[in-house]
Amino acid sequence: MKILLIEDEAALRTALMGSLKQAGYLVEAAADCAQAYEKIGLYQYDCVLLDLTLPDGSGLDLLRALKAQKSPAGVLIITARDALTDKITGLDLGADDYLIKPFHLSELNARLRAIIRRRQFQGQQQIMFRDLVVLPELAEVQVRGEALTLTKKEYDLLLYLLANPGRVLTKEAIAEHLCGDAVDAADSFDFIYTHLKNLRKKLQEKGADNYIRTMYGVGYKLSHE
Ligand code: CA
User: Fold this and answer.
1) Which of 12, 47, 126, 216 is the most buried (most CB within 10 A)?
2) For residues 103 and 23, what is the distance between their CA atoms, to the nearest angstrom?
3) Are residues 89 and 8 in the same domain?
């Protein structure tokens, strides 16, 4: 799960980044509109945490830009402004939810989970695919009722495939999803093959064979048979 945090207050940004990383999210940050525009122009995010008052512009304009480019990212507004008009404008523009500063980190985590669940799996409490059941709230995976132990990256990879049924995911898209823009520096995508190989092996050991199909030269997709 990849999050873009747009917040100009350095102390709050650092605290939020630490907390979100600890909660298992991949987090990138922007301190102003210029950095944020660059990020949303280059990368896809699952959710954007958006401060409205930024030194070089309004977060509402960033929200308009996200919606104009038909970004699938959820948007959670975090703002010190409790002006009713801003909240209403934000929600009218398509933000999913808002939090007024100061807020508890546990509250932020709960709202984020709800947004991502709603966006990715239409609010389902469990995701089913062939013999697989995934409980995203608990980060649990079962094959025919038997628990499957996955690493964080393997779990993220499986969820990414499940969130895109029938779509071929390129290795570039998978790398970006798993590692964020750190992937710019990576010379090869070998690490993806390793995660894929291990995920397939673990699935296979539980009898879930041939769930991930390789489309040679293109990418990977879930297989229904
Ligand atoms: Ca601010």
Assistant:
1) 47
2) 16
3) yes
For residues 101 and 80, give the distance between their C-alpha atoms in angstroms, rounded to a whole number.
5
Spell out the residues 6+ positions from residue 122 whose beta carbon is closer than 8 angstroms to its own.
none
Cα 130 to ligand 1 centre (Å): 46
Q: What is the pTM of this model?
A: 0.71
CATH code of the domain covering residue 32:
3.40.50.2300
**Total of domains in the chain:** 2
Residues 9 and 117 in one domain: yes
Distance 12 CA to ligand 1 centre (A): 10
- Ligand 1: distance of its center to the CA of 128 in Å? 41
Q: pLDDT tens digits, residue range 75-120?
A: 999 987 666 778 788 888 999 999 988 899 889 988 998 888 777 7
What's the 139 CA to ligand 1 centre distance in angstroms?
A: 33
The structure tokens listed for 55 are: 């030194």
- What is the whole-number distance in angstroms between the Cα of residue 10 and the centre of ligand 1? 10
